[in-house]
Structure formats: structure tokens, C-alpha cells
Amino acid sequence: xxxxxxxxxxxxxxxxxxxxxxxxxxxxxxxxxxxxxxxxxxxxxxxxxxxxxxxxxxxxxxxxxxxxxxxxxxxxxxxxxxxxxxxxxxxxxxxxxxxxxxxxxxxxxxxxxxxxxxxxxxxxxxxxxxxxxxxxxxxxxxxxxxxxxxxxxxxxxxxxxxxxx
Length: 165
Prior knowledge:
By secondary structure, the chain is α/β, with parallel strands linked by helices. The protein has helices at about 25, 45-60, 85-90, 110-120, 155-165, and strands spanning about 15, 20-25, 30-35, 70-75, 105, 135, 145-150.
């Protein structure tokens, strides 16, 4: 794994699937896996969500054996991805969401999300053109890497270990 340069994470305000506010920078103080999605997607988002669910299950099975890892799914369609739409999407995939569950779906004001997208090199404008990359890392210790969204869960766990060491 080649670590990427330290990301310049903006301190943007986002809201989760329950409408609760969060600061992106604070969420990324611990190890995170970040993917970008939108609830109306019928191409890469459903298999990416299934892969993230498998990862979340693998991480939960590990328990206290590793650094706590949070999954963040960040919307690329703030006009279509309301908290209600994200909850409905999560129900389709039988996802457990919330801070205690270790997975948040996040949306927000377009100008706030645009700053987050820029930090993670996500194209702006057309939600269907979003990347199928996952970002793995943490602001502390500042190691980040990327992986294909369909990378097997066990390989993602290995990458998480590397960026959180």
C-alpha cells in the first residue's frame, strides 16, 4: 500500500440519515472507510453498499481486536438524498446505521458537500459520474489510501490495519 499525502479535510457540516448534525473532520479523527453514493443509483452503488455491509459485518466480528472503524457513505446527490431517502435506501439493504452501529449515511447542503467532494477528488455535477473508490484512513495518524469499492472485505480489513497502525 502506498499511503497518499495527508488529506486537507474541510470542517464541513453534514447531516446523517436521522437528521443529526456531524462535522466531517471530527468523524475522521478515528479510522474511517468513506464511500460516495446516491440513493437513486442503479449501477455501482448497490454492489458498493453490499460490499460495505460485508466489511461492516467483518469489522463487527473482529470486535475489540482492532482500531474502531467507522463507515461513512457520503451523498453525491444532496437534492435527492434527504435523511428519509437515505433511511429507505438503508432498509433496502438491511443496514444498521448510527454512530453506535459504526455506519453513517451523510448528506448536507450542496456547498458543504462540494467541499468534501473536492477533498476526496469526487467529480462535481453529475451524480452518476461519481467514483467507485473507497477512501480508508484517519486524520490521526494522517495515513490514507484508496481501494476499489468491490475489494473483498478481508483485503479492506488489511488496508485498515495498515492505515491505523
